Hints:
Elements: E1 6-9, H1 15-23, E2 28-32, H2 43-51, E3 58-64, H3 66-69, H4 71-81, E4 85-89, H5 96-102, E5 109-114, E6 132-136, H6 150-155, E7 161-164, H7 173-180, E8 184-187, H8 200-214, H9 226-230, E9 255-256, E10 259-260, H10 269-284, H11 286-300, E11 306-308, H12 310-316, E12 321-326, H13 336-349, E13 354-359, H14 363-375, E14 378-384, H15 385-390, H16 392-400, E15 404-408, H17 415-428, E16 433-436, H18 446-454, H19 456-469, E17 475-479, H20 484-490, E18 500-508, H21 519-522, E19 524-528, E20 531-535, H22 560-567, E21 571-577, H23 578-592, H24 598-605, H25 612-615, E22 621-626, H26 634-641
Helix pairs in contact: 7-8, 11-13, 12-23, 13-14, 13-18, 14-16, 18-20, 19-20, 23-24
Bound molecules: pyridoxal-5'-phosphate (PLP).
Pyridoxal-5'-phosphate (PLP) binds at residues 334, 336, 363, 439, 479-486, 552, 597, 599-600, 627-628.
Amino acid sequence: MSRPLRIKLCGIRTVEDARLCAAAGADELGVVFAPRSKRRVSIAEARAIRESLPPALGVIGVFQDAVFDGPEGIFATAREVGLSAVQLHGAIPPDLFSSALGAGFPLPIYIALQLTDRASLPDLSSLRGCARVLLDGPRGGSGESFPWALAREARAHFRGAIFVAGGLNPDNVAAAVLDAQPDGVDVASGIENASGRKDPALVRAFVHAAKAAAQDLPREISRASAHDQESAMSTRELPELFTSDPGPLPDARGRFGAFGGRFVPETLIPALDELESAFREARADPAYREALARLLCDYAGRPTPLFRANRLQTALGAAARIYLKREDLLHTGAHKLNNTLGQGLLAKRMGKQRFIAETGAGQHGVASATVAALLGLDCVVYMGAEDVRRQAPNVARMKLLGAEVRPVEAGARTLKDAMNEALRDWVTNVRGTYYCIGSAAGPHPYPLLVRELQKIIGEEIAQQSLAHEGRLPDAVLACVGGGSNAIGAFHRFIAESSVQLFGVEAAGHGLGSGKHGASMARGKPGILHGSLSYLLQDDDGQVAEAHSISAGLDYPGVGPELSHLCATGRLQTLSATDDEALAAVTLLARHEGILCALESAHAIAALRKLPRALLDDPRSVVVVNLSGRGDKDLGTLISALGGGAP
Ligand SMILES: *Cc1c(COP(=O)(O)O)cnc(C)c1O
């Protein structure tokens, strides 16, 4: 079975060599700044090389003796050239990682180690914060190799990626790959001709031999981390991810009909391009799919059950057969983890060590902090200062999980402002930072990416409905904040004309009150957070404040794909007020023993508002996506219901 192997071609000195190596299929190129190296380049030469390459192709700077050169100089060079990571040889200051972070340096740091024999392999567990080690021969750059099997031993005590270098060439790279089972290989002299230039035939032969050998690697050891290795013995059947085509939308410009697109500062376009191509590659890569499938099963608890809610059906006086899709049973208590797991693995794959997110009520922040802890990423969560105050338990959760929570004092100091601030951070630190958006909103490719990661909900609903009822459901309901649980539940059924789709918005104090979150029912097309979609606006076109008792639905926009489905009539909208949602929490708790999130309660409340033809027909199969559990809402519930009634 195959597993991806990254190929780094190092010691690039000219734009011509860089283009040759990129065309041959290299994943990363290395430029050397070490003063004594014969492959040394100047900053200007390195920048010209960087600029000649597609943004998704990593350029890694190789430095010697960070102790003497000082981390600051290295970081300044990295910024000036636009490096995607730095690789350090020789003496490493013990506090390098903390000083790197202190200097605001968010790029991954790779450490090169020279090995002769087993005794020369240091304890790698001390290299916390190091994204990758490069195991090299005894005298780096000399073309001598080390016993490759040491790389497999190193894996037992190092969670980052392991690359192998030292004396590799087209003839021995296959043996090295099979023996070392590394995440990547690194070569400089083995692909050069006598005059020290990269030789086209050797470059192509090297890439070809390495990739062919990777086909034979056991896939149990995943490239992402040793964690995947430990959890290789899944007791559940892994889902097949991304088997269905993404469909025609979004189009090449990231548009869903009239909606979506990219309305962002120019500086973000390359980063969004890089993200899109990285995701398209990952989606097609069996190793990424398997790593994600394993975490979704063994860590998050997929598949979630589809539960027949008999007593709820009776209480509603409905003839239709009502099922609940139990996303509330997912780890961290909501569907959000489907998205953050996928984006976390993507960040790892892109070599980004810093993982930032925005959050409103804190649910997405908690899911992001969870995944960052799991995968060893550094997590920063932006949260409106008002939300920090209101959502103290989730702030505490994020901190316990090791994330830094940054309160945002701008605007109304809520989700919209946190999202602006996260985008600003990303613009500034784009090279080493991954921005994990929490809903199917934002600039292209986020609505596509988040939908692809959430659509497993609807795929499971289809399978489970076939198993329980022998056919697809007649209707699927989901609450709509930004729209991720809804598009996740709906996407499988968009082309199934027999399945009616209902998006349930927050009616707050009532749709006529001006205090609600019903962007599809009451909004107009406008631009927020980088994309065009339905938006709550005042008469001057200013973004209006949303209101809902459930923080997750308290957002003035909605993702572009739902906007499009709504505009074309494929999606019908319903709504539920704060009071109706509160009553639905109690109804579900009393009749099924399930305490659901206030967001999800909107979808339960909307069951009563379904067309009578559906509700009164005993053959109807209706599925409600129960997006999350209610523990987080206990404070709100206690103050609204006085701890018990009705
Ligand atoms: C965040 C959240 C929502 C709203 O977000 P969507 O992107 O619209 O799904 C709904 N339900 C729960 C439980 C949430 O945590």
